[in-house]
């Protein structure tokens, strides 16, 4: 007999799913002409019917945000704005269990992550920026920094509520009002957040949530009534946005793709490095822009490291996102699954060796087994393109200089990881890596006080920390 | 992974030993503690919990190590070990009873025919501060009186002073005294402090012939912790991969609740692997833990909690 963990599902009952949801405009939920379905990617079951905002809805939302900015939120003293943000943060904490379940249902991520990572960070982000609201003159952006006005914000599906927090918390703290569009596959927690805004008695129009797909997003960022565009998502869409915003007065921040190197030296703490590699690429099914998708292993330790990594991967529990013991959940959508499959197949076709631990995948839903590619050349597509899935490409290096060269040899520059017991080498490497975030002996570690953002095609602007205020002040 | 082919001949060469221990991969404290904390969030329910509780009971080294221990106290403990819950014959018996060496005879008599082992702490437990002759005499007496397992302590002073050879030689000497008797080597990780030291001491003990490595005496705080046990489980896993020899692990001290015990079992399951999930290869050194396991077991089988008055205090 062996130690089999019995199913330990988190109850869905805590979530009160409505059959349909409207748009949140000017403090109330309103209907739209069209709608779309959002599904549970683990079962393909429809969760709810969600309104699709059209151009006129965007007009109304931007007008409401403008009105709120001019009459209430802009003129309000920072200390008063802070009270609302603290209230929102506390409401998020109070409802965190419900929000975590909802996030896992709509996104497919394991409840362990939504419960232990996403939700605590969401609340922390609001608490952090609530604290800044009355201290902006001391943030280093002049003695009397002013808000920009109305921010149009478009966020991705990988961390739906967390990306909302990254966008809305600093914008509101600085005195801006927002119109936010969540991703079409994960709109539900943003709509729950709209309820929380109402619960906190946030003045109408300060936060507006427009659900919809690409067209809604385009109408929002191209709307002449907004002063600022903040986007997190693919480099491809980021380019389109940069083009449409060029020549206008709109301010822009972009947080785009990545192809991070996780660099392991032969003196690294190997067991922890293995955890860091696993956490770097299999956390959130690899749907992480800063994922450590390229493992650069020093050749002298590569074989041992891979043996340990494979043994560890065999213990990953893939399955029901609501089971508290699940480590890797469902891929967010059929389209994303197709992309991961296509790129993985190209890896095999180009000559890399593919390996996955034996693991049973559920029949319904979108699933991809944790995968590692060895024998990867820098020229392979799986070493260059962002896969945004649980797929790791392993390359080797001989010297620190070669590691830097290989790590930087990508159009992206969002994050990197260094594993070594030698402090001086960490500093030497960090100075030379062209990446916005460099982790030393850890990976995928986030904190609201720490700025996050990229170099090169990973975007520009910083979110989090004091630096994150700059994008919302003039 | 250290190359052990050269080591077999060089066991007596301090430089080789030091080189080997220093060549082990370092442990990152933050990462090790994070890993242990994450595994502690595993949710073990229903059938998995029932399995884990019975497994944990069968792994208990039921321990009394007080200056005030008497033959009567030891007899009572032995009775408890054989029949942890007199009201329920389906409860497994514990693995062993752990006593001071002068009380081994009493325990052996009390446990005659039960199949439960008698473990004796020895080698000037808990400090280990005595001449080697005294340590060996202590060990010999316990074995002569019938102990089936010896829990020795390492010389932490020598280890911290860098005299790995002295620690090694003492373990070899005690092991020679033990013969077929199982030798558990207590590292007293609360005094070694760093995880790097824990990993090195684990390898040192295994190389010197330990059958088990054990965290603590229970007399020093902190005693057993999850991250320390994690590092030791990694050590036995790697040691088996390098040498083919399997060594057991025993966290001891501070494990009081069923929840704690289950966290340790999860750690074993997901670090060293299922091969270690038997009393032969994993033990829990504890005293009050047993009653909590029994209470949780009855809750699971009957659906109601019995108060502490319904379980014997021994």
UniProtKB/TrEMBL annotation, chain A:
Family assignment from sequence similarity: Belongs to the aldehyde dehydrogenase family.
Listed PROSITE patterns: ALDEHYDE_DEHYDR_GLU
Gene3D superfamilies, sorted: Aldehyde Dehydrogenase, Chain A, domain 1, Aldehyde Dehydrogenase, Chain A, domain 2
Highest taxon above the source species: Bacteria
Keywords: Oxidoreductase
Protein name: Aldehyde dehydrogenase family protein
Domain Aldehyde dehydrogenase: 31-473
Positions of the catalytic residues: 255
UniProtKB/TrEMBL annotation, chain B:
EC number: 4.1.2.4
Keyword Transcription belongs to the record: no
Pfam families: DeoC
Catalysed reactions, semicolon-separated: 2-deoxy-D-ribose 5-phosphate = D-glyceraldehyde 3-phosphate + acetaldehyde
Record InterPro entries: Aldolase_TIM, DeoC, DeoC/FbaB/LacD_aldolase
Keywords, sorted A to Z: Lyase, Schiff base
Pathway(s) it belongs to: Carbohydrate degradation; 2-deoxy-D-ribose 1-phosphate degradation; D-glyceraldehyde 3-phosphate and acetaldehyde from 2-deoxy-alpha-D-ribose 1-phosphate: step 2/2
Record family assignment: Belongs to the DeoC/FbaB aldolase family. DeoC type 2 subfamily.
Protein name: Deoxyribose-phosphate aldolase
Gene giving rise to this polypeptide: deoC
């Amino acid at each position: 007999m062996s130690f089999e963990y019995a199913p330990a599902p988190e109850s869905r009952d805590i979530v009160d799913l409505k059959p349909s949801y409207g748009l949140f405009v000017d403090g109330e939920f309103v209907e739209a002409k069209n709608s779309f379905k959002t599904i549970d990617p683990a079962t393909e079951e429809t969760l709810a019917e969600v309104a699709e905002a059209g151009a006129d809805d965007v007009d109304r939302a931007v007008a409401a945000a403008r009105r709120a900015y001019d009459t209430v939120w802009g003129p309000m003293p920072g200390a008063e704005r802070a009270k609302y943000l603290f209230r929102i943060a506390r409401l998020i904490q109070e409802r965190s269990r419900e929000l975590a379940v909802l996030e896992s249902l709509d996104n497919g991520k394991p409840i362990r992550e939504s419960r232990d990572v996403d939700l605590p960070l969401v609340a922390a982000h609001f608490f952090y920026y609530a604290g800044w609201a009355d201290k902006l003159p001391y943030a280093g952006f002049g003695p009397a920094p002013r808000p920009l006005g109305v921010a149009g914000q478009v966020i991705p599906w990988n961390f739906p509520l967390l990306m909302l927090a990254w966008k809305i918390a600093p914008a509101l703290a600085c005195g801006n009002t927002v119109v936010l569009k969540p991703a079409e596959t994960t709109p539900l927690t943003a709509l729950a957040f709209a309820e929380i805004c109402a619960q906190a008695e946030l003045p109408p129009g300060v936060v507006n949530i427009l659900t919809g797909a690409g067209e809604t997003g385009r109408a929002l960022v191209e709307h002449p009534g907004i002063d600022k565009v903040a986007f997190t998502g693919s480099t491809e869409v980021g380019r389109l946005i940069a083009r449409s915003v060029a020549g206008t007065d709109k301010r822009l921040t972009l947080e785009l793709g990545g192809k991070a190197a996780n660099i392991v030296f032969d003196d690294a703490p190997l067991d922890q490095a293995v955890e860091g590699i696993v956490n770097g690429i299999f956390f959130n099914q690899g749907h992480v822009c800063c994922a450590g998708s390229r493992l650069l292993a020093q050749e002298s330790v590569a074989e041992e490291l891979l043996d340990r990594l494979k043994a560890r991967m065999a213990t990953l529990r893939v399955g029901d996102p609501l089971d508290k013991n699940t480590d890797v959940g469902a891929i967010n959508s059929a389209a994303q699954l197709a992309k991961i499959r296509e790129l993985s197949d190209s890896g095999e076709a180009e000559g890399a060796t593919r390996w996955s631990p034996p693991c049973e995948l559920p029949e319904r839903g979108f699933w991809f087994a944790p995968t590692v590619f060895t024998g990867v050349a820098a020229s392979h597509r799986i070493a260059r393109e962002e896969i945004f899935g649980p797929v790791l490409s392993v390359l080797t290096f001989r010297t620190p200089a070669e590691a830097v060269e290989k790590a930087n040899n990508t159009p992206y520059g969002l994050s990197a990881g260094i594993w070594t017991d030698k402090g001086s080498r960490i500093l030497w490497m960090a100075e030379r890596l062209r990446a916005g975030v460099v982790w030393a002996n850890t990976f995928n570690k986030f904190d609201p006080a720490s700025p996050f953002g990229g170099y090169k095609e990973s975007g520009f602007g910083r979110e989090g920390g004091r630096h994150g205020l700059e994008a919302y002040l003039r | 992974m250290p190359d052990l082919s050269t080591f077999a001949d060089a066991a007596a060469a301090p430089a080789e030993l030091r080189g080997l221990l220093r060549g082990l991969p370092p442990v990152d404290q933050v990462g090790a503690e994070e890993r242990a904390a994450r595994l502690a969030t595993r949710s073990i329910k229903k059938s998995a919990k029932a399995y884990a509780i019975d497994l944990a009971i069968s792994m208990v080294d039921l321990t009394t190590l007080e200056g005030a221990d008497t033959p009567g106290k030891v007899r009572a403990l032995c009775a408890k070990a054989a029949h942890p819950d007199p009201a329920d014959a389906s409860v497994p018996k514990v693995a062993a009873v752990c006593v001071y060496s002068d009380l081994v005879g009493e325990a052996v008599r009390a446990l005659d025919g039960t199949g439960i082992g008698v473990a004796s702490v020895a080698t000037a437990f808990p400090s280990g501060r005595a001449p080697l002759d005294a340590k060996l005499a202590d060990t010999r007496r316990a074995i002569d009186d019938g102990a089936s397992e010896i829990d020795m302590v390492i010389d932490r002073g020598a280890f911290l002073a860098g005299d790995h050879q002295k620690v090694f030689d003492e373990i070899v000497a005690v092991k020679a005294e033990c013969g077929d008797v199982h030798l558990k080597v207590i590292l007293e990780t609360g005094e070694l402090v760093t995880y790097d030291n824990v990993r090195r001491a684990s390898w040192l003990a295994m190389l010197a012939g330990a059958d088990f490595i054990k965290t603590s005496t229970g007399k020093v705080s902190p005693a057993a912790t999850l991250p320390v046990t994690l590092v030791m489980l990694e050590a036995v896993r790697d040691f088996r991969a390098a040498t083919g020899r399997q060594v057991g692990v025993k966290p001891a001290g501070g494990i009081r609740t069923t929840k704690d015990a289950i966290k340790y079992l999860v750690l074993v399951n997901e670090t060293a692997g299922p091969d270690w999930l038997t009393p032969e290869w994993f033990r829990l050194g504890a005293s009050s833990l047993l009653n909590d396991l029994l209470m949780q077991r009855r809750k699971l089988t009957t659906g109601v909690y019995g108060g502490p008055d319904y379980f014997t205090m021994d």
